[in-house]
């Protein structure tokens, strides 16, 4: 089974993101987080295969507190199938949480997908993934209509198992 460690947002911010996702869904532009049973989030780590017990223990050890999050439009990963996302302003709180997680993980001799390691990680909140190239500009039009800076707070850290997507552990930030 594959796993991801994600950071979710407060209800108000999540609702704003879901509103944009619904427009992507209506236009059949890629796949949104909601379509795979995920809340809007920032992925902190991803594992093709992992020991679930170690992942649970590592997430449980995090000493994270709630902190502000700012999302700004927009970015894209131009892969075979495109990803459109909101950029996350990288605050010290976010970077320290990410680094803390990877420090704990390294003590357990586990490795995440290299793209999520502290040296490569580009924090973002995906709006839609696996977008066909012919739908790319339609997706950009949607994002530019909702060009506001979005602000809220980090709310929970979740350990997710996929596919199908299920919550393994939810740790609320204090």
Report on the architecture of this protein.
With 174 residues, this protein is of the alpha+beta class. It has a single domain (2-172), classed as Cyclic phosphodiesterase (Cyclic Phosphodiesterase, Chain: A, Alpha-Beta Complex). The chain is 30% helix and 34% strand. The chain contains four helices and seven strands, in the order E-H-E-H-E-E-H-E-H-E-E. The chain has helices at 11-26, 52-61, 92-107, 136-145, and strands spanning 2-9, 41-47, 68-77, 82-88, 124-131, 150-162, 166-172. Strands 1, 2, 3, 4, 5, 6 and 7 form a seven-stranded antiparallel beta sheet that branches. A hairpin with a 4-residue loop joins strand 3 (68-77) and strand 4 (82-88). The longest helix is centred in the N-terminal third of the chain and has 16 residues, at 11-26. It is globular. The model has no long low-confidence stretch (mean pLDDT 96).
How would you summarize what this structure contains?
With 174 residues, the protein is of the alpha+beta class.
Describe the structure using short key phrases.
single chain; 174 residues; alpha+beta; Cyclic Phosphodiesterase, Chain: A; seven-stranded antiparallel beta sheet; 7 strands
